[in-house]
TrEMBL record:
Chain's gene name: dmlR_3
Keywords: DNA-binding, Transcription, Transcription regulation
Domain HTH lysR-type residues, every copy: 1-53
InterPro entries per UniProt: LysR-type_TF_proteobact-type, LysR_HTH_N, LysR_subst-bd, WH-like_DNA-bd_sf, WH_DNA-bd_sf
UniProt keyword annotation of DNA-binding present: yes
One Pfam match: LysR_substrate
Species this chain originates from: Cupriavidus respiraculi
Name of this chain's protein: HTH-type transcriptional regulator DmlR
Record family assignment: Belongs to the LysR transcriptional regulatory family.
Stored PANTHER family: HTH-TYPE TRANSCRIPTIONAL REGULATOR (PTHR30537), TRANSCRIPTIONAL REGULATORY PROTEIN (PTHR30537:SF71)
Length: 300
């Protein structure tokens, strides 16, 4: 069952074998024997692709639940405690993780010493199921995925910002159309033609921006903006301290009529959630939500 779960989550026999310290052929033989005993096809194989059948999906969900129950039962017997334990895999965007989650981890670790936090910070799109992520924090619109549920934590406004030094050299755009002649910093994991929303004449208009540099994460973009290399569009939570201290200035605030994004905590839709994930989500609601409610308010 453990081998089958790992194959489903990694997407291949070879990847599962690496994590289990087994050979791919041994993994393949185990799955074949499992299918023979169950008398169903769990995985559809081809030379380039491995797909989970409907029976395989049903069996996978049962396996995850059973293995989780076994882990909880074994720990309860051996430690004589119901305290949350085990490895908690958390995935967060780099800016939100750096400025909010990482500073809270010591407090969480002190409360739950039996939980080992495996924290990954990235702005790239991650397959939560394949990477075996227990809890993720996501900004913006969420894709539809029946394997995961989401709980909204806050609403963040985004702002167009620049360093005072950049404004001194190149001037400040007075209307959104002026951005066409400015250096606008963009993300390289989105489409090459970035479009920023503005409220013009009572309507939301998306204007393309070009120029400047490309990067794959918001923290690097913030630093490039602080260095005066261009204009960027970042979450207010990410740059609020820079705006308060004058390291950055907000541009075109009168045209920002609702450029916002939701902040969600995302977790497995499995009926039996591990205690370590449950207490971490409760901890985020208790400690993170007040911080987000405070820092996500518009400056001024």
């Amino acid at each position: 069952m453990q081998v089958f779960v790992r194959v489903v989550e990694t997407g291949s026999f070879s990847a599962a074998a690496l994590t289990l310290d087994m050979t791919p052929s041994a993994v393949s033989k185990l799955i074949s024997r499992l299918e023979a005993r169950l008398k169903v096809l769990l995985l559809q194989r081809s030379t380039r692709h491995l797909a989970v059948t409907s029976e395989g999906k049903q069996f996978y969900e049962s396996c995850v639940r059973i293995l989780g129950d076994m882990e909880e039962a074994e720990f309860g017997v051996s430690q004589d405690t119901d305290a949350p334990h085990g490895v908690l895999r958390v995935n967060v965007s780099l800016p939100l993780g750096t400025h909010y989650i990482v500073p809270l981890i010591p407090e969480f670790a002190a409360r739950y010493p039996g939980v080992t936090v495996d924290l990954s910070l990235t702005d790239s799109v991650v397959d939560l199921q394949r990477e075996r992520v227990d809890v993720a924090l996501r900004m913006g619109q969420l894709p539809t995925d029946a394997n995961f549920r989401a709980r909204k934590l806050a609403l963040s406004r985004r702002a167009v910002v620049a360093a005072p030094g950049y404004v001194e050299r190149f001037g400040a755009p007075e209307v959104p159309g002026d951005l066409a002649s400015h250096r606008c910093l963009r993300f390289n994991f989105r489409r090459m033609l970035d479009e920023w929303p503005f409220r013009i004449d009572g309507k939301t208009v998306y204007l393309p921006v070009r120029g400047g540099m490309l990067t794959n994460n918001g923290e690097t973009m913030r630093q490039l903006t602080l260095d005066g290399l261009g204009i960027s569009r970042l979450g207010l939570f990410h740059v609020i301290e820079d705006l308060k201290t004058g390291r950055l200035v907000e541009l075109l605030p009168g045209f920002n009529g609702g450029d916002v994004e939701d902040v969600h905590v995302v977790f497995s839709s499995q009926r039996h959630m591990p205690a370590r994930a449950r207490v971490f989500i409760d901890f985020l609601v208790e400690r993170l939500v007040p911080l987000l409610s405070r820092d996500f308010q518009p400056v001024g």
